[in-house]
């Protein structure tokens, strides 16, 4: 009998693995609904849906391994990163999903609120927070919406050799800023941005990608702390924020 592996678990959701089946349990059924709809629309490899009985979504494992892990150097080849970039480009060129994305005003309000919390709780030096808030401002501009994954962490892209075999965890998919997806997949792996863009294309705004590195790290930190994760682990969000202090 296959053992049950807890992949991730916190107050909002849990993911279990039993053999080649992943069971995603989410307290908000809307997340699974978006995931199912997004995977049906996305022009990139996605996991097979085995069954869906709220609050549980069962999906098949995808072959290969994750592009990398946050906090560790990526062992994937430059060609694998380029293949990931090409897959992301296909997604961004696809028709928009028929549900709304986040509004710019909401993103800005969340950023200000999270920066206030970080300052009030002194989890980072104030100058690190203020500098990254300044950098993050470049992301707060109108964008042309594209079909984005919305949570394109490096662990959500699977490759086998130089081929993308699957992109997982689509519950945040929506119309949004293309630069956001490019920033999230390279968060903590900034040195692989050129490899990614070799497949995606160079018609991007690198300053906005850098801004999203800061913005994402600022707004995610409190959630990570409150759900038992450590943004201060080597190579993770706090290191990303500190690294911005070394830039001109």
Can you put this structure into words, describing what you see?
The protein has 248 residues and is of the alpha+beta class. The protein has a single domain, classed as Aminoglycoside phosphotransferase (APH), C-terminal lobe (Aminoglycoside 3'-phosphotransferase, Chain: A, domain 2), CATH 3.90.1200. It is 41% helix and 18% strand. The chain is built from 8 helices and 10 strands. It has helices at 29-41, 78-93, 104-120, 126-136, 178-186, 193-200, 206-226, 237-243; strands spanning 4-9, 13-18, 21-26, 49-53, 56-60, 65-66, 146-148, 157-160, 163-167, 174-176. It has a 5-stranded antiparallel beta sheet with strand order 1-2-3-5-4, covered by helices on one side. A 3-stranded antiparallel beta sheet has the order 6-8-9, with helices on one face. Strands 7-10 form a two-stranded antiparallel ribbon. Strand 2 and strand 3 (21-26) form a beta hairpin. Helix 2 (78-93) packs across helix 6 (193-200). The longest helix has 21 residues, at 206-226. Pfam families: APH. Residues 40-210 form the Aminoglycoside phosphotransferase domain. GO terms for molecular function: transferase activity.
Q: What's the gist of this structure?
A:
The protein is of the alpha+beta class. It has helices at residues 29-41, 78-93, 104-120, 126-136, 178-186, 193-200, 206-226, 237-243, and strands at residues 4-9, 13-18, 21-26, 49-53, 56-60, 65-66, 146-148, 157-160, 163-167, 174-176. Strand 2 (13-18) and strand 3 (21-26) form a beta hairpin.
Poorly predicted regions are none
The helix content, as a percent range, equals 40-55%
Structural class: alpha+beta
SSE topology string: EEEHEEEHHHEEEEHHHH
Give the distance, in angstroms, between the N- and C-terminal Cα atoms: 56 Å
- The CATH architecture category equals Alpha-Beta Complex
Structurally, the number of domains stands at 1
Q: Name the average pLDDT.
A: 95
Largest sheet: 5 strands, antiparallel
CATH homologous superfamily assignment: Aminoglycoside phosphotransferase (APH), C-terminal lobe
Rg for CA atoms? 18 Å
Extended strand count: 10
CATH class: Alpha Beta
What is the overall number of helices? 8
Strands ordered across the widest β-sheet? 1-2-3-5-4
CATH fold-type name:
Aminoglycoside 3'-phosphotransferase, Chain: A, domain 2
Strand content: 15-25%
Overall geometry comes to globular
Keywords: Transferase
InterPro entries: AGP_Transferase, Aminoglycoside_PTrfase, Kinase-like_dom_sf
Pfam families: APH (PF01636)
Protein name: Aminoglycoside phosphotransferase
